[in-house]
Amino acid sequence: MDRSTQPRTIKQYKAMYEKGTVNFDHVMQRSYGHWDIKQQSKWIHSLAINWPVPQIMARPMKETVTINGKEQLMNVYYMLEGKQRSLSTFYFLDDEYKLSPKTKPAKIDGIEYEMADKSFSELDEEVQEAILSYSLSIMSVDATDEEVEELFFRWNSGSPLNKTQQGRAIMGTDWAIRFDELSNHPFIKEKSSFSATELKRATHEEAFKQTMLVLDTNDDASSFSAPSLLDYTERFKEDSENKLAIFQHFLPVFDYLDVAFDKKEKVLFKKIHFPASFIAGKYALDNDIHPEEFYDWAQQFKHDFNKPESATIKTKYKDFMGQGSTHKAKVFGRISEMTRHLESYFTNKKFVNTDLIEILKKRKVRNT
Questions:
Q1: Which pTM was predicted?
Q2: How far apart are CA 91 and CA 96, in angstroms?
Q3: Out of the domains of life, which is the source (predicted)?
Q4: Do 125 and 182 fall into the same domain?
Q5: Per the domain annotation, does 224 fall within a domain?
Q6: Which residues form the domain of 353?
Q7: What is the mean pLDDT of the chain?
Q8: Alpha-carbon distance 118 to 124, whole Å?
Q9: Together in a domain, 212 and 308
């Protein structure tokens, strides 16, 4: 298999497409339309600010092309990789869609130009020129049909990033470091309900974000689903002071829970229960409830919601599980029911908590 790489500006590349020497109909290519407006806008913005982008790959094949009424034998480049990027660019240049209202300004030569909610013709000339003059790297692959099939298999056999993993790039390095600190806490690694596979897929980070969203009075998101959490991640930088204040609650509560549970808690800290159980732990810590007493309550709560016929304290917690469990009403319903159960359990109880601070110190945990 031979390969070579040639640079082409966006303007030159579109001219090839219009001339008929670029073709996106290779049988192995998926259909156009898999990108939403946010993905298209991110791509166009990358071109405008001259950021590095992945190369485009094509298989050249000799075909007869009619140009200016004359038939010519030329290389037609059948695109193997880059269809969504290419057509998103061409359609934008033809004013077939506007960029997302959330598109950031393009900074060119130290000057910022607005791009949000604009078509190509509505952009400033400087931005138009930056896009048209962007130099793409196009790799030509001289390969057999069998080799092309093998290429597609290899390109698509990797594990794609899920929404939570994508969020790391969006939240930035500082927040990724903070989430690593939470992920590496002994409570998460040794006591929480997340399996090894879930930890690899960053399922626990999705639970962290759901919990942050519960505590976040600056945000009114109606869903706690993965796509909604990805949108929430985008707001970390613009609301950093508030988000950091929310983050400060996590480590002290994790420290408390690490003391309360001496082994893996297989139920309450699964993803679906995590926000409610975290809020319960925070309530206990804030009210000086002894970790051992909190553990005893946790066992009672599990019994009461799993076996309502013999429950000591009746709870409707299960009514807020099942289908649509990431909807705001169900998330807050679970939190409300778990907190109500916790408060009922500890009503009129007397505690001897003078040794709580010493327990935390001995375990080398935080007391802040």
A1: 0.66
A2: 5
A3: Bacteria
A4: no
A5: yes
A6: 164-362
A7: 88
A8: 10
A9: yes
